[in-house]
Specification:
By secondary structure, this protein is an all-alpha fold. The protein has 15 helices and no strands.
Length: 234
Amino acid sequence: MDDRSVISWIKSQGDKRYVEDMARVGIPSKNIYGVSMAKLRGKAKELGVDHDLAQKLWKTRIYEAMILASLIDDPKFVTEKQMDDWVKRFDSWGVCDCCCGNLFDKTPFAFKKAKEWCASDKEFVKRAGYVLIAAISVHDKMASDDKFLAFLPIIEMGSTDERNFVKKGVNWALREIGKRNRNLNKAAIGSAERIRLIDSRSAKWIAADALRELKSEAAQRRFYKSERRINSGR
């Protein structure tokens, strides 16, 4: 299927009510038709992995086409330049989070770009850095603890940013690191405790929310069960 056919499909599946719903949660109503994520994922499965089509869809600047691009692109062909070019176009948390969680976290540049983008002054570039940390924490099962420990000072530095989308990205990154295993849980709790002492409304919210989850009985029970499986050789 070519890009024009995909765009025609997007337009045919649009729902103005969905556009209004998305606007209420911070997705701009410009260049959006209102296609649900479920439909987009179904379409992505139908299209399959297609790097060239992904590039064409991205260039349309249509919200749903950009989401589809993140779902069908091949991380083996994604370059650092592409990642930097795409991140400059992020204008909503929806596109940002889908690109980071569907595509960028699977590239060999994920850790490097996360660190770079967290240092940006631009709201959605900075959010992308922290969301990428969260995505790597969930999806990269083989990465060593040291790689995630190196992110904690970056998270602490970002905790005073009062911008809503950045603040929530920082919080997300901290929580996901702390859920990987007991060692990182203790380290993340330590970071959250330090963040809590900072004289910043954003920092105090990030710390309180993260500590609530990381210290929860449910989180500790997961570690216990995981360690028990490992020790039993399962």
